[in-house]
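Recall the central idea of this unit: under ordinary conditions, the amino acid sequence of a chain determines the structure it adopts. In this exercise we apply that idea directly, starting from the sequence alone.
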Amino acid sequence: MPTRTRHTGRREDALSRERIVDAAIELLDVAGEGGLTFRALAAHLKTGPGAIYWHVANKSELLIAATDAVLSHVMPADVADGTPEDAIRAVALGVFDAIDVHPWVGRQLSIAPAEPATLRIFERIGRQIRALGVPDSAQFTAASAVLNYILGVGGQNAANARAYDGVPNRTDFLETASAAWANLDPDEYPFTRNVADQLRDHDDRVQFLDGVDLILAGIASLRRSPASGLPRQSASEVRAPI
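Accordingly, the structure predicted from this sequence is:
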């Protein structure tokens, strides 16, 4: 009789840290941070938890590695013929789109500001702030303003993604929220009532980029401010951050 081959259900190929991180990202995208456990990861990889611990010490380390892996794939390369403003927009959109696809990334960036992914974003932004001619004394504040805006909106989008759970779609969610705004007390909330329709109809990505441009416009003023110690530029010399 032919010998029957026994299938143990375990992977025969070598387990690596990269494979573990990729599997973690898949689980996070489906079930969020709460669904990422070493037991679930071991089942997904068809291995034992001990094999995973050989490569990753704990869940916190795994989340940091997964976040870093996602963002390393979306960070645009520096383009020599682009403007610093364009480079900042590209970085901002890379992070925005990553969080749109992987909402858990927004939360991780907001709670781990000193981790590699956040530091790389800050470095990329800071180099462009320097290239814009912002004085040294204002570079940290300018780069931080851009970073904090990106992370703030990213964190809010992650929260919104959780809020959409149980709602048929984003359009229905915003329709309900807009109607609630429109019915607020007109004496207490005159502004909010007035922009209720804009809440319903707005595009998150367009609004995000508009916010980046508002910050870039403020940063541009640093280059021509008398307090900066730099020569004042004429209006024709200052390129609008469109």
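The CA atoms of residues 169 and 175 lie 10 Å apart.
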